[in-house]
Amino acid sequence: QGRVGFATTAYVQPALSAPDDVRVLGTAELKTPIIGPLRQTTAVDFRVDSAPPRGVEKKDIRFGTSFGVEF
């Protein structure tokens, strides 16, 4: 119960009509125990698109943190 946890998931989505048009989406989470069942989670979500639509950034990275109780 007092362990640090790490998880990550990523997807690679190539366009079949244009193999050099690739999108990568993913998330990574680090869960850290604080006291007893209280946990803190830090997450990073990312998106990279080699040929995004007009008005959309090529790279998008978001950081977040949350607290929770684990039973």
Structure description:
A hairpin with a 2-residue loop joins strand 1 and strand 2 (18-33). With 71 residues, the chain is mainly beta. The chain has no helices and four strands. A four-stranded antiparallel sheet has the order 1-2-3-4, with no helix packed on it. Helices cover 0% and strands 70% of the residues. The model has no long low-confidence stretch (mean pLDDT 93). It has strands at 5-15, 18-33, 38-49, 59-69.
Descriptive labels:
about 70 residues; mainly beta; 4-stranded antiparallel β-sheet
Kindly state the mean pLDDT as a whole number? 93
- Give a quick account of the main beta sheet: strands, pairing sense, barrel closure: 4 strands, antiparallel
Distance between the termini: 10 Å
Query: Cα-atom Rg, whole angstroms?
Result: 17 Å
Low-confidence stretches: none
**Spatial shape:** elongated
Question: How many DSSP-defined strands?
Answer: 4
Structural classification: mainly beta
Helix content: under 10%
Query: In percent terms, what proportion of residues is strand?
Result: over 45%
